[in-house]
Amino acid sequence: MIAARRRISLAIVFVLLATMGISLFPGTQALGRAAAASANLLDNPGFESGMITGWAGMAGTETLSTVSSPVYEGSYSALVSGRQSDWHGIAQSLQGKLTAGRTYDISAAIRLNNASSGRILITMQQSDGSGDNYLRVAESPVTDSAWMTLRGSFLYEPSGEVTSLKLYFEGPDAGVDFYVDDVIVTERADIDWKAEANARIEQLRKDDVQILVTDEEGRPVSGANVEVRQTRHGFPFGSAMSSTVLSNGQYSDFFKEHFNWAVFENESKWYSNETSRGNVNYSVADRMMEFAEANDITVRGHTVHWEVDQYQPGWVQSLQGSELRKAMDDRITSVVNHFKGKFVHWDVNNEMMHGSFFKDRLGASIWPYMYQRTKELDPDAKLFVNDYNVISQPGDNDYKLHIQELLSQGAPIDGIGVQGHFGATIDPIVVKQRLDNLATLNLPIWISEYDSTQPNESIRADNLEALYRTAFSHPAVEGIMMWGFWAGNHWRGADAAIVNMDWSLNAAGQRYLALMDEWTTHQSGTTSANGQYAFRGFHGTYDVTVTKGNLRATKSFELAPGSGVLSVAVQLKDSGGEPGPIPTGDLKVQYKAGDTNANDNQFKPHFNIVNNSNAAVPLSELTLRYYLTTDGEDSLVFNCDWAVVGCSNVSGKFVKLGTAKPNADAYLEISFKASAGSLSAGGSSGEIQTRSHRSNWTNLNESNDYSFDSTKTLFTNWEKVTLYRNGQPIWGIEP
Fold it and tell me: A Gene Ontology molecular-function term (predicted)?
C-alpha cells in the first residue's frame, strides 16, 4: 500500500480543488493560465514540445510518451503506461528550485486511460537530513471520461542537506495507464488573507439601516440622541451541547451567553435513545430541548442514523434483512416525529463516506430512502449530509462526487455538513479552496463540527480565527458549530477546548469572544436635520433607543440578509420630564437583595411586580431595569434561578448607558415572553429570582451600584428599579 511506506510531514498543507473556474485569490482570474505558467518552476510542463523532456519514470521501468489526443489544453499530453506497481508514475526533479520556508501551489490535469475509475496522488519525494519522506500534496478520484484538475499546496521546510526533491504522480492500480497535462508549480505570493476575508464579510454579513425619527405629529426630529445595540447575531454561531448543561450552572451560563445555536452531542443519537429494542427514551434530550427553547437557542438534529458500524446500538449490530429494515424504519419514524417542529435540521445518515453498515446489509438504495422518508415525516426540516476529512484534508472532491451521486438517486439533500476537526495549523487559503469547490454544488454549507487539537493555545487561537474568519466570509457558509468548548468534557481533551477546566478563558476562548465582539454592531450618534441616523450593521436583532430632552422612544427591529437599506421609523413621545413614581393604584416594583454580600462574584436581585390597578396587564408589555456599574470590560451573564411565571418566560440582557451616570454605567433589563401571561388586577407577578456574574467569574463590587441595597432582605417598594410598559417609563427613578 502507498500509505505504508510514507512518513507524512506535518509541514504539508493538503489541498484539493476540482476545476470549476474558481480563482484561489479574488481578482486573479483575469491573469489567466498564461500568467500562472510564466512563473512555472517546471520544465516542459504542458508537453508542448511533443517530447517527454524534463520528465522521467519514478521507478525507471515506466513507459512515458506524448500523445495528441486526449489533451487538456494545447497540442500534447503525456501518457504514463507500463506501470508495475501503484506508486509507479511520472516525475520531475525540483531540487535547487525551491526556497526554504516558502509555500508552493501545484496543479495538474489528470485522466485515466484503460480503467473507468481510480485515484491519483500528487506526491513530493524529499530526501534530506531527516531521511526519505513522501509528502502527499493532493489526491482525487479520477475517471477515463473527463479530465480532473488536482490542486495542492505544500510548505517547503527541508532538514539539512537535500539530496533529492521530486514531484511525481502515482496511485492507480498496477497496469492502469493515465494521462497528465498542464502541470504547474508556482511560489505562492504573500497574501493578506485576513483583509480579503474582511472585505467579503463587509459585503456579505452587513446591510445598511436608516433610522427616521419623528415627533408625535410626524415631523422629523433633528439632534436626537440615538443608541443602537445588536442583541442577537443573525448568523448561527453554535456549539455541540452535552447533558452537562442540565447539571452544571457554569456550563449552561456560558452556553446561553455565547451561542445562539446548539446540536446535541450524543443525546439524540440512536444508541442513546434506544439502548435495548423497544425501550425508547428521549428524556435527557427533551430536557436539553427545554433549556434551548427557554434561552432562544435553535437546535440542529444529530443524527437520525450513523453509517459507521461501531456506532450502532449493540442490539442492532446482529440484525439482518427485514429485521434490520424494520428497526431502521422504526427509528426514523420515532425520532423524526418526536423532534418535529423542534429540530430545524437533521443530519440524516452521518459519515456515509466512512461507513456502510446499512448499505452493505440493505443495498445502495437505502441511503436515498433515508432522506426521502425523513423529508416525508418532517417536510420543514432541512436535511444534511455530514462527513469529515473534507476541509481538514483533501477529501472535498470525494465528498462532492458522493453528494452528486446521492442527489442523482433522488435524495432530498438541503445542505452540506462539513466537519472541521483540525490539528497542527490551519491554512485559511486551503480551507477557502475546499469550500469553493463544495460551493459549486449550489447547496448551503455548514461548518457542522469545528475543533482544533493544539497544545499551544496561541496557535489554537490562530486556528480558530483562521477557520471562523474564512467560513464567516464565505458566501456559501450559513452557520458554524463548534464541537464542544469546555476542557471538562471536550471529546478531544483540554488541548481542543476554548475554556479551561477552571472556567477561565484560554487564548482560543479570548479570540472567540473578540471575534464575536468584532462582528456585533453597537453604535450611537445624533439625527441629522431631516431626522435621520444611518449606519451599517451586522445581520441580527437590534434595540434602538432615541432621546431628546423629555422625549424618548425605544424600538426593536431585525436586520436580515438581503434587506437592502432597511428603514426603521421611530416616533418620540413626551415622557413628562424626569420619570418618578407613578400614582398609587398602578404598577409598582418590589425588590430584595438575594445576596447581601457586595464583594463576591455574583449579584442576586429578586423582584416582584405588583398591579394595584383594576385591569389586567400583559407581562410581555413590561420591562424592568436594574442599574449597576460594570467596573470593567468583562461581559456579564444573566440567569433566572426561579420565577413563579417560569424562568423559560423570563429573559435578561445587559445594556451599556450611552452616558455613564452616578453609580451606573449599565443596566440589567428583564423582559417577559407572551407565554408569561398577565398580571391580574390586584395581583402580582410573584417572586422572580435572578443571578448574574462576570463571564470569567471574577469578583464584583456592588457597593457602587445604583439599584443595590443590602439592607432590603424583604420585598420593599424600590424606586431605584424602574419599570416600563411598551417602552414608556411607568415606575421608578432613573439614575
Answer: cellulose binding
What does 534-585 look like in DSSP terms, one character per residue? Answer: EEEEESEEEEEEEEETTEEEEEEEEE-TT--EEEEEEE-EE--SS--PPPTT
Q: Give residue-wise pLDDT tens across range 425-435.
A: 899 998 999 99
Q: Which amino acid is at 41?
A: L
Helix, strand, or coil (residue 698): coil
3-state secondary structure of 367: helix
Choice among 139, 227, 449, 702 that is catalytic = 449
Question: What's the rounded Cα separation, in Å, for the pair 514 and 508?
Answer: 10
Buried residues in 323-353 as b, exposed as e (16+ CB within 10 A)? ebbebbeebbebbbebbeebbbbbbbbbbbb
pTM above 0.85, yes or no: no
Q: Is 293 helix (H, G, I), strand (E, B) or coil?
A: helix
Rounded CA-CA distance 224/8 in Å is 64
Give catalytic status of residue 702 as yes or no. no
Please state the three-class secondary structure of 228-287 as a single string: EEEEEECCCEEEEECHHHHCCHHHHHHHHHHCCEEEECCCCCHHHHCCCCCCCCCHHHHH
Which entry of 351, 457, 478, 669 is annotated as an active-site residue?
Answer: 351
274 is catalytic: no
- The owner of cell 489567466 is 32
Count of CA atoms in the C-beta half-sphere (13 A) of 55:
29
Residue ranges of the alpha helices (H) in 411-496?
A: 428-439, 457-472
Task: Give per-residue burial for 547-563: e unless 16+ CB within 10 Å, then b.
Answer: bbeebbbbeebebeeeb
The separation between CA 242 and the C-alpha centre of its own chain, rounded to angstroms, equals 17
* Domains of the chain, CATH where assigned: 3-187 (2.60.120.260), 201-231+522-574 (2.60.40.1120), 236-518 (3.20.20.80), 587-731 (2.60.40.710)
Residues 195-227 as b/e (b if ≥16 CB within 10 A, e otherwise) read ebbeebbeebbbbebebbbbbeeeeebeebbbb
Q: How many CB atoms are located within 10 Å of the residue 97 CB?
A: 15
Share of the chain above pLDDT 70, in %: 93
Q: What is the DSSP string of 321-333?
A: HHHHHHHHHHHHH
Q: Is residue 23 pLDDT above 90, yes or no?
A: no
> Cα(467)–Cα(277) distance, rounded to whole angstroms?
41
- Long-range (24+ apart) CB contacts under 8 A made by 282-289 are 282/335, 282/338, 284/243, 284/246, 285/339, 287/246, 288/241, 288/243, 288/245, 288/246, 288/262, 288/264, 289/339, 289/342
Give the residues across from 347 on adjacent strands.
302, 384
Task: Tell me the pairing of strands 477-482 and 237-241.
Answer: parallel
Predicted confidence (pLDDT) per residue in 293-335, tens digit: 988 999 999 999 999 999 999 999 999 999 999 999 999 999 9
Place of cell 425501550: 279
Q: How far apart are CA 613 and CA 128, in angstroms?
A: 87
Q: What are phi and psi of 373, to 5 degrees?
A: -70, -40
**Residues paired with 689 in a beta bridge:** 606, 642
Residue 648, CA atoms < 13 Å, CB-side half-sphere: 10
